[in-house]
Amino acid sequence: MHLRFHTDVATVLAFLSMALVPAASSAQPLAAPGLTEQMAQARQLAVNGQREAALALYDRLLTESPGNGDLLLARGRTLAWMGRWDASEQDLRAVTAAHPSYGDAWSALGDMYFWSDRPAQAAQAYAEWARLDPADAPPFVALGRALRDAGDYSGAADAFGRAEANGLARVEVEGLMVSLRPPAANRADTAPPGFRWIASGTYEHTGFEGSRRPWNDYSISLRRKFTKGSLAVELLRANRFGGHDSAVALDGYVDLWSRAYANVRYQRASGDRLYPHYASRAELFQGVGSGWELSGSYDRLKFSDDVNIYGLGVGKYFGNYYARVRATHVPSSDGTRSNGYRAILRNYYRGDADSYVEFRVGHGRGNDFLPGQGLSQVRNGLVGVSWVFFPERTWGFKLTGDYGHDSSAPSQFSVSMSVYRRW
Fold this sequence. Notes:
By secondary structure, the chain is an alpha+beta fold. It is built from ten helices and 14 strands. Strands 1-2-3-4-5-6-7-8-9-10-11-12-13-14 form a 14-stranded antiparallel β-barrel.
């Protein structure tokens, strides 16, 4: 049964003209006569950035009208705009408890959870909003986005389908469906919402044909996610050719404009025998069209000589697959040029962004740094496979195997294992 307050028609029209959210609701508890103009003034203060003044006015009005649903809703949404999540939740929960048929209150509660990176709880609130307004598109769009960010891609697709059935334009639905594809396959900071930290450890063993001693490499990483990207600290150690070297790196991702992000990295070592003395990297990714991704990169490595590497890549998402081809170009001081090519194909076999199988192949004529030899021209080929699997949301692992052939060195094979922990 819809909640109704007794008031005159003029007051109803005045309140509806300054409704706090544009979406329709199944029932709208109206402000008592005499509050309408003051509520409009408080809202104007809030939308103009004077939110402390708006809160002060809402507080005063609530002392005069304790428990007023419209005032609590208005104050709760203003608190959410300010990022004061606990206080906002208290107000909005009070409204939904007292007026469970008030659709706008469920919408505001869902927004508060969504903005504070709690998509599962946002989905629960949006589901109530959609139940109250089953013939409108906005509740199902909001529900789909929350389910998507909570990792429920199937539920999100169903919600977007309901939005289309309720009148959402097909072009908008297609844009929402594209967002259900796994996140960009190149990002190392991919994790479901709710996780702020990602730790990993990797061990790699490389063996060679003939009598060359094997290599062993180790690395650990701790990454912190932020609203618009992430930053990791990495420690690396290499044991090769009877010697060893260590390095430390900062690796960051940042979201830019629509469908664009960048990876920036800086690594420094004590010497330049196994690792470059320093290495810097910048790569820009841009999504275009329906599932396409373009990229351009620049690497600078400081050995005894500087090495500059330029790269171009193109990727494509289709279904649960991601394919990418990348070309690299390395000019040298003697005028020679080195070009290489790599291709990967990933299958996100569980339909999420966590678990996948990757196949890769590469070939090219390139400048490779060989310890004790400097930069040497080599012809090389590479084939490899990786398996990434998260048995639970909080931890997972990666197994990798590669085989490579170099014209100036023995053929090699490598195996590695990584363990991931998220919280």
